[in-house]
Amino acid sequence: MTLTEKLIDKEKQVSAHNYSPLPVVMSRANGVWMYDVEGKKYLDMLSAYSAVSHGHCHPRMVKVLHEQSQKLCLSSRAFYTEVLGPFLEKLCSVSKMDQALPMNSGAEAVETAIKGARRWGYQIKRIPENLAEIIVCERNFHGRTSGIISFSSEPSYKKGFGPFMPGFKTIPYSDAKALKEAITPNTCAFLVEPVQGEGGLYVPSLGWLKEVEKICRENRVLLIVDEIQSGLGRTGKWFASNYEDIQPDGMTIGKALGGGVFPISALVGKKELMDVFTPGSHGSTWGGNALAAAVGLEALTILEEEHLIERSAKLGIHLLNRLKGLKSPLIKEVRGIGLWAGVEIDPQKARARTICEMLVKRGVLSKETHETVIRFAPPLVIEQSEIEWGIEQLVWVLENYKPENS
Predict the structure, then answer these.
(1) Which GO terms describe its biological process (predicted)?
(2) Which residue among 90, 151, 190, 226 is the active-site one?
């Protein structure tokens, strides 16, 4: 038994099987490259679902993590710290928001947004108690908590986890008319991803978000955008919602906020929304800890100073053009924006999972979603030549794929 096989077997024995990892065991990483325990090198085209947008072990991120860890890591929010204020000030500045509520995971940020939207509905909009509704979209993915999966449209996320939280309405994505018709006097918010990542890399029609903003304003409904995957340069802008120059009432941010070295998330929002939170109404032992604040501030600073957002816009055009130019009967459609692309595979001709496994053997890391879409989201520090190499491996896989029942 090889070292890889031994480690996989050990993990399978002691880990809950809530993931189905690709059969490779990672040992170290740097920039856009990862290395397994056998020493083989891989091009990371997944970035831990956009959490490693800065590249693996970015030297500035590691330096700040190390330096802050020797000073103060955690004191809880029972005290002020010298680093949280500057971090949240920077976060509010880039998001054009008034205040921030720091948490740890993306799902926590979304749960915070749900609580804030409901309380705003009762205290500010004067919706009768316990009747507030939040509108969401089909194919949404906002996290895995019991509250969030209550409004998922994916059966596999919900099976065996009921009963579910009420108070949500689901409409088709990129459909302004459906939103308008779904709103009632009890609607407090519309929660939406500007680009649906986990759902299969769906980019809405041009002008839809602007129309959504208008509808929400006319009906006194909060517009809350989930930028956890799409934010912080992934799409070639600070946030995907910037493409339509909209100003939401609230925004959830996470993943790349931790610079690939620490879990950090936040709900940022306008004062009217954020003012509903009062002492004791919400919190987290680790949320806003000093280590996270130092890391988050450096992550935002690096995005600016190293022009990673501009790189994403430029290299994203190249990536999408190359993928859309591929001539393979296995490809049904290519979708994406910035350094974020989804290659939809025709399920009648191939399995996306098998293609991902073949890519691993060629030294490229990616992952399927919904069994039919292969996602490509490399670190924003990737070079064009590295993208080209990755595309070459994909071409080889597509040309050499053999149906499993043949």
Answers:
(1) L-proline biosynthetic process
(2) 226
Dihedral-angle region of residue 290 (phi above 0 means left; psi in -120 to 50 means alpha; beta otherwise): alpha
Strand 168-171 versus strand 187-192 pairing type: unpaired
Query: What strand order describes the sheet that includes 341-345?
Result: 331-336, 341-345, 373-376, 367-369
Instruction: Give the dihedral of Cα atoms 286, 290, 291, 294; nearest 10 deg.
Output: 130
Q: What are 371's two structure tokens?
A: 């069994």
Structural domain 72-305, CATH architecture: 3-Layer(aba) Sandwich (3.40)
Report the SS3 class of residue 307: coil
Catalytic residue among 44, 87, 141, 262: 141
72-305 has the same fold as 3-57+307-400 = no
Chain centroid to CA 13: 29
**Adjacent-strand bridge partners of 189:** 134, 222
- 237 among known catalytic residues: no
Given the residues 90, 168, 190, 255, the one annotated as active site: 255
pLDDT, one tens digit per residue, over 310-322 is 999 999 999 999 9
Structural contact between residues 207 and 217, judged by C-beta atoms closer than 8 angstroms:
no
Tell me whether residue 255 is one of the annotated catalytic residues.
yes
DSSP 128: P
- Reading the block at residue 54, the tokens are 């800065």
Query: What's the Cα-to-Cα distance from 289 to each of 89, 223, 260, rounded to whole Å?
Result: 15, 28, 17
Q: What residues does each domain of the chain span?
A: 3-57+307-400, 72-305
- Catalytic: 141? yes
Cα separation of 272 and 249, whole Å?
A: 9
Confidence class for position 405, pLDDT limits 50, 70, 90: low
Instruction: Tell whether the torsion through CA atoms of 308, 313, 314 and 317 is positive or negative.
Output: positive
| pLDDT tens by residue, 254-264 | 999 999 999 99
Q: What is the pTM of this model?
A: 0.96
- Choose which CATH entry (3.90.1150.10, 3.50.50.60, 3.40.50.1100, 3.40.50.360) describes domain 3-57+307-400: 3.90.1150.10
Task: Give all strands (DSSP E) within 31-142, no chain letters.
Answer: 33-36, 41-44, 99-103, 133-137
Residues 6+ apart with CB under 8 A from 121: 127, 132, 186, 188, 189
